[in-house]
Amino acid sequence: MSNFVDYVKIHCKSGHGGAGSAHLRREKYIPKGGPDGGDGGRGGHVIMRGNAQEWTLLPLRYTRHVKAERGENGGKNQLTGAYGADVYINVPIGTIAKNEEGEIIGEIMEDGQEIIIMKGGMGGLGNEHFKSSTNQTPRYAQPGMPGEEGYVVFELKILADVGLVGFPNAGKSTLLAAVSAAKPKIADYAFTTLTPNLGIVEYRNFKSFVMADIPGIIEGAAEGKGLGHRFLRHIERNSILLFMIPADSEDHYKEYQILLNELEEYNPELIDKDIIVSISKSDLLDDELKKEIAAEFPEKLKPLFFSGVTQEGLVELKDVIWKKLHG
């Protein structure tokens, strides 16, 4: 996931509709043939399509412009012009498309789902549609309607069962590396993780669940400080939020409250999700210190202690996660 791309902006243009034909029928034995102009074809749509084989928006990173074909003009003998070819933008499940005003156009929730993000222009009507008792030979037809044009922003919110929530350097990458085959970058400084990492966590009897290491939150993330907003939106899609507070924190419960406050300010619905509180790096603690830290929290938020380095408490942590997912 080192090449994770979760935001791209593409200039999209749907096809213009073809013009209707103003042709008048002229045949050897029919000297006064009426109008027989066909309709113009519809312009091509720009369509967003879900693809379960895609995990990131990386294939679209260098796509600057997408343009659908225009519809063909109508012809004689009431011949309708061909439709312009649609153009497809393949995106991962969980991708949202927004217009330039930030309004959501659509969201891809399943493989193969298609959403028209820009409609092709309608083809113009041929002159045969305008024939009447008072106008037997109309010599005019409609032009095709123009297509739509503008920038579309594609945002990917990763889909995971468990999202890891914590300040930078809380040990999230270490945990993910310990319980899955993911290879996140790990170092002892803030903001090591600049992009979300996904890992498949194996559980008992060949079961598994998806865990997402979401980049660290800082105070003020809800106001867009640092990289805040970009990362907070990923948390919206997780079933369970695993709050991680490092053992060497100065005030464990206060740190939990700050994290919770950032989520609530960004989106109040987030705090209604299932929450598990944990203390990471617990290999630094003895039993007495663990009791003191646990006493800081209310009874319903009693933290789980684990260490991604020594593997201590990981089985119990996975048991609690699985029970919340399938309880």
TrEMBL record:
GO terms for cellular component: cytoplasm. Its EC number is 3.6.5.-. It is found in: Cytoplasm. InterPro entries: G_OBG, GTP-bd, GTP-bd_Obg/CgtA, GTP1-OBG_CS, GTP1_OBG_dom, GTP1_OBG_dom_sf, OBG_GTPase, P-loop_NTPase. One of its GO terms (molecular function) is GTPase activity. Residues 160-326 form the OBG-type G domain. Residues 2-159 form the Obg domain. One of its GO terms (biological process) is ribosome biogenesis. Signal peptide: none annotated. Keywords: Cytoplasm, GTP-binding, Hydrolase, Magnesium, Metal-binding, Nucleotide-binding. Its cofactor is Mg(2+). PROSITE patterns: G_OBG, GTP1_OBG, OBG. GTP binds at residues 166-173, 191-195, 213-216, 280-283, 307-309. Belongs to the TRAFAC class OBG-HflX-like GTPase superfamily. OBG GTPase family. NCBIfam families: Obg_CgtA, PRK12297.1, PRK12299.1. An essential GTPase which binds GTP, GDP and possibly (p)ppGpp with moderate affinity, with high nucleotide exchange rates and a fairly low GTP hydrolysis rate. Plays a role in control of the cell cycle, stress response, ribosome biogenesis and in those bacteria that undergo differentiation, in morphogenesis control. This is GTPase Obg.
